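Teaching assistant's notes for section 4

Start the section by putting this record on the projector. Ask students to predict, before seeing the second block, whether F-box protein will look compact or extended. Collect guesses on the board.
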Amino acid sequence: MCKEMAFDLQTAHPPTVTYYKLYQSFYKRQHQQTLLPPRLSFDDLEFYIDIWSEDKLIFSGVVPGPVLQGGIKILPAGICDMLKFHLESPEYKMSLTVDPSFTVPWSQTVSVSVLVGRKDSNKVACIINKPLFDYIDRTASRALAFDYLVFSPYYPFISGIRAWISLLFTEDGNNGVMNVFGIELDFCDAANSREEIL
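Reveal the predicted structure now:
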């Protein structure tokens, strides 16, 4: 029986496509594709941002989508060159001026939550759920926090996308505090343009 089932290697025809060629045909680098127009607009969105210092609420605001998309128009005096270069660069970013500004002592832990709501349907989603600003880049005057986006089970293959939020600050060396003048939000793991974010 084994003799009958044996595969005759000498008479078998060699495959016309090797595994490597097959791999190459499926693993071609995707070229930048033109995205379809988004079905959503920043005009339809509102961002609810709350920031705590040692569990004390120090900032709470409802930010309309167009304000966050519009960015920081006038940079304050005294910001470092690296932050100025970042904010003036042509890369897409969502940021807003905090008015009035607030201060945070270096010794305190700071956390943040961000909800986004759709005005056209009254739906709300949590995109950042109280992570700490545990990375502070003093050379760039930015304190950063992130949280992983949680997707519906209907999208099982989407994972590992982070929402980043930054506090933009100037330093007050004498008082040991950072003066926060702006907030920036981005999804740089997966989106670098308005269309990709929407």
